[in-house]
C-alpha cells in the first residue's frame, strides 16, 4: 500500500534557482511529516519536519509546506546548490504510531 | 556523540545461509526501527522495537525474518535461509521516543547494511 507518494522520480534544477519537491499522502491519520536527504551509500539524513498543526516550517534554505485538505506537502530549496544533489524522501507518521511510511524518493540534480 | 551505528556495512551470503545485521542506536534513544530499501525503490518499514519489546512488526515478512532489541546490546535483524530476493540495503533508525505532544520524535538513520545474496 502506497500511503505516501512521490510522483516525480527525478528533478533537475539550475544552481541558484528554486527546487520544489512534491509529496502526496492518502492516510488522513498522518499528523507528522518529514523530509530526508540521502546520498549514495549513506543512510537518510533528517532535513526538516512539520506537524499537522502548522502549514509551513522554515529552516534556512529549506521550507516545507503542508496542505492538509489536499493531503499534499512540498519541500522548497532556495537557492539550490550543487551539494543539494541527492535523493529526497518524504515520510509521514500517524498520531500515537511511531512507524513512518516513506515515499519512493525524488532524485534532485542541481547543475552548476 | 556517535550516531546510529550499523554493522557490517556490507554482508555477502550464499542462498540458504543466515544473515545477522546489527544496529546500535544513538545514545539516549530507546526506540529502534528497521527499514529495507530494494534497488530503485523507497524505504519500506519492517519493524519497530523498544527495549525487549516488539511494538509493530507489520512490515516484516512472515517467515525467515526476526528482530530483537535486548536489554543489553544492539538490535539484531536476523534473516534465516536467505534468498536472492533478500538482497537489499537494510537501514536502522533510532529515536528518543518523545511523546509527540511534547516535541518531535524524529528518527535518525544509520549508514545501512548492504546485503548481497549470491
What can you tell me about this protein's structure?
The complex is a heterodimer of chains A (112) and B (118). Chain A contains no helices and 11 strands. Chain A is mainly β. Chain A is globular and about 40 Å long. The mean pLDDT of chain A is 92. Chain B has 118 residues and is mainly β. Chain B contains no helices and 11 strands. The radius of gyration of chain B is 14 Å and the shape is globular. Chain B starts with a strand and ends with a strand. The A-B interface holds A 6, 31-32, 34, 36, 41-46, 49, 51, 89, 91, 95-105 and B 4, 6, 31, 33, 35, 41-45, 48, 55-56, 58-59, 91, 93, 95, 97, 100, 104-112, 114.
Can you give me a brief rundown of this structure?
Chain A is an all-beta fold.
Core attributes:
heterodimer; A: 112 residues; mainly beta; six-stranded mixed β-sheet; five-stranded antiparallel β-sheet; B: 118 residues; four-stranded antiparallel β-sheet
Architecture blueprint of SSEs:
The complex is a heterodimer of chains A (112) and B (118).
Chain A: E1 4-5, E2 10-14, E3 19-25, E4 30-38, E5 45-51, E6 56-59, E7 62-67, E8 72-77, E9 86-94, E10 101-102, E11 106-111
Chain B: E1 5-7, E2 10-13, E3 19-24, E4 31-37, E5 43-50, E6 53-56, E7 65-68, E8 75-79, E9 88-95, E10 108-109, E11 113-117
Parallel strand pairs in B: 2-11
Antiparallel strand pairs in B: 1-3, 3-8, 4-5, 4-9, 5-6, 7-8, 9-10, 9-11
